[in-house]
Amino acid sequence: MDERSYLEKYSEEHSNVAASVTVNKRIFKRLLGFLICSVIYAVIYGVSKFRGLHDIQTQFLNTFVSTIMICSYIIALVFLICYILVCISKNIKERLDQVSFKIKKMFFFTVDWLVILPVCATVASFCFAFLFTFAQVDGDSMLPNIENESTVFVSYLDKVDRFDVVVAYINSSDYVNVGVNTSEYYIKRVIGLPGDQITLVKGVLTIKGNEYETSTVVDEYYFSKETLNNFKLYWKEDYNFDGEFTYIEDNEVKTSFIIPNGYYFVVGDNRINSNDSRKIGLVKEDNIEGVVKFELSSSGLERVE
Fold this sequence. Notes:
The chain has 2 domains: 6-130; 133-303, Umud Fragment, subunit A (Ribbon). Helix content is 42%, strand content 24%. Helix 2 crosses helix 3 and helix 3 packs across helix 6. By secondary structure, the chain is an alpha+beta fold. The strands form 3 sheets. Strands 1, 2, 3, 4, 10, 11, 12 and 13 form an 8-stranded antiparallel sheet that branches. The protein has helices at 6-13, 16-48, 55-88, 90-98, 101-114, 116-130, 225-234, 277-280; strands at residues 132-136, 151-155, 165-170, 184-192, 197-201, 204-209, 212-217, 245-249, 252-256, 263-267, 283-284, 288-297, 300-303. The longest helix is centred in the first third of the chain and has 34 residues, at 55-88.
């Protein structure tokens, strides 16, 4: 295959004027790509404000993506101004047509490669805003199933179900503990659904509600026998949950023995070292950012059960 580009061939086979017009059109399309990506990115940012993004994404967006899109905005703005000037000034258009084909060709290939960056950045922004994200685990509350400092894949699209591991954002107004002013992300396992009655005593989980018609001791399949035995061995009375749920509704702390609609009871897998619904209260459905599907840790990539 001839190594010469199709633009060089076109220049040889046609007049310089025709080739110049062709390159003008191709440059116009690439620069239009910068403008379209800039507009789409602005819409994504404005609509979603990147809700749910964690530190790893925030850093990514504040450096890599933001830098690319700022450059894209500048290129798009310059292009828009130049295009308007070309449209309203015949003299500028004639001067543009007089620019040598070689210079236009070099400019075309530069723009042709650069336009890939804002396209990729826009696609990544859309995915992180509406489809999925990655989060880094900070703490031991999900041991032994999810390691500290591992990275988890979080899906925004999955419906929350019992025993799913989720990432929830808890702000200061959601805590049932008066005086707590911190806001942070939690990674926990959903144990209780709306309509459930739950107790957790000496490491034994009992549920009544939904698929459990009577009070049932639940087999927590995601724990090994060794883990369950450790719970019983090191369990303290402070770790128990007697069945009385606390939650925030209309800025008031309320209690109930049945989980109300729109709330979940979440607990860390490390039952003896976890700050969860036993202390902070029920978690609002709106505060759950997504369902954890995969974990990338020192042992490799694993599906989260």
